[in-house]
Amino acid sequence: MTLVDSHAALAVGPLRTVPNYITAVRTVAAVTVGVLAIVSGSVGLMAVSYVIYWIGDVLDGWTARRLGQETRAGAVFDIVSDRACTAVLCVGLIALVPGIAVVALVFLLAFLVLDTMLSLAFLCWPVLSPNYFHLVDRRVWALNWSPVAKVANTAGVICAIAFGQHLLALGVAIAVVAVKLWSAAAVVRLLERDGRA
């Protein structure tokens, strides 16, 4: 089910679902291991925390779809948890690899501010999550929440850093900011078009 009726759009949805438990566990685990990595100065532990975060993020979404437990509350919980994980892990990377501070600043501002507002914009329409934003606007969805966009928007920067390509990582982060700014303007137009502004 991708669309929700107006009553369901106002309901928070069941909170005790398997995907939400996975989101909670992966968030606590990734943040805990990330903090341990910062305290111990371990790049290896930081890599482990990223793996926990990414696998958990894929698993909670897959489980939600597989079990038919997608809810708007679950989508918001996932979005908030992603920001908690990313903030700790990115700060950890800065502590462990100070040379990426500029890249991290650009990435964090884009992800924690622009992407958060864009990701929560789905709440203005009767869709279950940003994964279904193509029902509102296909271009905005393709640039932000399609499988390719999700990988490119986050993993592109991290992989470039992992391979020591800091200038490339900065270029990717700046490109992501440009996409997010364009998408934000497009969402504002959609809100006005649909009388939701």
Automatic annotation (TrEMBL):
<dbReference type="InterPro" id="IPR000462">
    <property type="entry name" value="CDP-OH_P_trans"/>
</dbReference>
<dbReference type="InterPro" id="IPR043130">
    <property type="entry name" value="CDP-OH_PTrfase_TM_dom"/>
</dbReference>
<dbReference type="GO" id="GO:0008654">
    <property type="term" value="P:phospholipid biosynthetic process"/>
</dbReference>
<dbReference type="InterPro" id="IPR048254">
    <property type="entry name" value="CDP_ALCOHOL_P_TRANSF_CS"/>
</dbReference>
<feature type="transmembrane region" description="Helical">
    <location>
        <begin position="102"/>
        <end position="128"/>
    </location>
</feature>
<dbReference type="Pfam" id="PF01066">
    <property type="entry name" value="CDP-OH_P_transf"/>
</dbReference>
<comment type="similarity">
    <text>Belongs to the CDP-alcohol phosphatidyltransferase class-I family.</text>
</comment>
<keyword id="KW-0812">Transmembrane</keyword>
<feature type="transmembrane region" description="Helical">
    <location>
        <begin position="28"/>
        <end position="55"/>
    </location>
</feature>
<dbReference type="GO" id="GO:0016020">
    <property type="term" value="C:membrane"/>
</dbReference>
<feature type="transmembrane region" description="Helical">
    <location>
        <begin position="140"/>
        <end position="163"/>
    </location>
</feature>
<feature type="transmembrane region" description="Helical">
    <location>
        <begin position="169"/>
        <end position="191"/>
    </location>
</feature>
<dbReference type="GO" id="GO:0016780">
    <property type="term" value="F:phosphotransferase activity, for other substituted phosphate groups"/>
</dbReference>
<keyword id="KW-1133">Transmembrane helix</keyword>
<protein>
    <submittedName>
        <fullName>CDP-alcohol phosphatidyltransferase</fullName>
    </submittedName>
</protein>
<keyword id="KW-0808">Transferase</keyword>
<keyword id="KW-0472">Membrane</keyword>
